[in-house]
């Protein structure tokens, strides 16, 4: 397994990490992801650790805490061998104190997560969304207290916009608070919006990307093909509305290119899609999920080999999309391009 620094921090994380959203799955969304119990989860953790995957990502909102509970059971007795990443901020109930990043909510949420996980510290806590109702200084000072108390090792965010992340980093520097070292983001061959602002920000500020849904919300599994109906058992029938939308023609263009590269390399479509992400700037780790051992072993096959420059170019061109303003049309102009070279 390849290990990379998480942003500009000293924390080393595996290039592939495991998303525990399939653990204890229930409800209209997470129930379709997977429903591994503690015994099944322990086997998946065994396979991960054998392959060098020691970072496990979860969130309090995943099946209302069940994911954290099952993960805690699965790692029992080997806490020092793993890195735990969890998230908080999204609603866990209907009450006014059940969501957000206020001081009281963060303290309560971290303590609850530690109890569910069966540990006294979390390696990485990420804010699952920006809380516009709470002053950023309050959020940062609370995280600082939690780090000093030994409950958190590192802090990061997820699904922030560029200005939300940059303002937070500026205030952290000004106040001497812990800086966010990770941004958990949606990024895939059918969803490259991350590249326009968040990737350059990450490069400039030393914020590493933890990529969620690298297979485009289940669209790049190799089961969806041009001219064929959506497979009967695809979870997209029930969950497509929860994820980022993709136009059909753009999807098929990407799938066609993936199929061609997969045939050249002797790899699967998902392995090619994940390997492409591993070559992209700022990506510290790609989070893979699996409902069973077979899926996990297939996804682990995405590492240990490299796409050729020609194959990367073919995938880049097939997945390219017109940039939104203000990146288009000015990024095409020669002077602007010199001032703002694209990430490589």
Plain-language structure description:
This protein is of the alpha/beta class. It has one domain (3-339): NADP-dependent oxidoreductase domain (TIM Barrel). The chain has helices at 30-33, 38-51, 66-74, 103-117, 136-148, 162-175, 198-205, 236-239, 248-265, 269-278, 293-300, 309-319, 334-339; strands at 3-5, 12-14, 16-19, 55-57, 83-88, 122-127, 152-158, 182-186, 208-212, 283-288. It has an 8-stranded parallel β-barrel with strand order 3-4-5-6-7-8-9-10, surrounded by 5 helices. Strands 1-2 form a two-stranded antiparallel sheet. The chain is globular and about 50 Å long. The mean pLDDT is 91.
How many domain modules? 1
What structural class is derived from the secondary structure elements?
alpha/beta
| Secondary structure: helix percent | 25-40%
One letter per element, helices H and strands E, the order comes to EEEHHEHEHEHEHEHEHHHEHHH
Specify the overall morphology: globular
- Please identify the top-level CATH class: Alpha Beta
Defining key terms:
10 strands; globular; alpha/beta; 39% helix; 13 helices; two-stranded antiparallel sheet
How are the elements arranged and paired?
Elements: E1 3-5, E2 12-14, E3 16-19, H1 30-33, H2 38-51, E4 55-57, H3 66-74, E5 83-88, H4 103-117, E6 122-127, H5 136-148, E7 152-158, H6 162-175, E8 182-186, H7 198-205, E9 208-212, H8 236-239, H9 248-265, H10 269-278, E10 283-288, H11 293-300, H12 309-319, H13 334-339
Parallel strand pairs: 3-4, 3-10, 4-5, 5-6, 6-7, 7-8, 8-9, 9-10
Antiparallel strand pairs: 1-2
Helix pairs in contact: 2-3, 2-11, 3-4, 5-6, 9-10, 9-12
């Amino acid at each position: 397994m390849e290990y990379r620094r998480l942003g500009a921090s000293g924390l080393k994380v595996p290039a592939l990490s495991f998303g525990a959203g399939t653990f204890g799955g229930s409800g209209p969304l997470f129930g379709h992801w997977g429903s591994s119990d503690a015994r099944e989860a322990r086997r998946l953790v065994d396979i991960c650790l054998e392959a060098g995957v020691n970072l496990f990502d979860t969130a309090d909102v995943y099946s209302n805490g069940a994911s954290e509970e099952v993960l805690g059971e699965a790692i029992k007795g080997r806490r020092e061998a793993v890195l735990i990443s969890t998230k908080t901020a999204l609603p866990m109930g209907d009450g006014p104190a059940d969501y957000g990043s206020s001081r009281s909510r963060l303290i309560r949420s971290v303590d609850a997560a530690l109890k569910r996980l069966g540990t006294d510290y979390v390696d990485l806590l990420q804010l699952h969304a920006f809380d516009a109702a709470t002053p950023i200084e309050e959020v940062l000072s609370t995280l600082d207290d939690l780090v000093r108390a030994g409950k958190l090792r590192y802090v990061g965010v997820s699904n922030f916009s560029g200005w939300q992340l940059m303002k937070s980093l500026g205030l952290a520097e000004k106040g001497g608070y812990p800086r966010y070292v990770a941004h958990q983001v949606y990024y895939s061959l059918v969803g490259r919006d991350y590249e326009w602002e968040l990737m350059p920000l990450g490069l400039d500020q030393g914020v590493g990307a933890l990529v969620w849904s690298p297979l485009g919300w289940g669209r790049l599994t190799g089961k969806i093909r041009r001219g064929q109906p959506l497979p009967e058992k695809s979870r997209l029938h029930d969950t497509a509305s929860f994820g980022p939308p993709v136009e059909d023609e753009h999807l098929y263009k990407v799938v066609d290119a993936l199929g061609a590269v997969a045939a050249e390399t002797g790899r699967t479509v998902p392995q090619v899609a994940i390997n492409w992400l591993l070559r992209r700037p700022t990506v510290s780790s790609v989070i893979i999920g699996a409902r069973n051992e077979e899926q996990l072993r297939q996804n682990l096959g995405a590492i240990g080999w490299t796409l050729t420059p020609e194959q990367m170019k073919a995938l880049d061109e097939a997945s390219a999309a017109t940039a939104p303003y203000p990146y288009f049309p000015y990024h095409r102009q020669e002077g602007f391009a010199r001032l703002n070279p694209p990430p490589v």
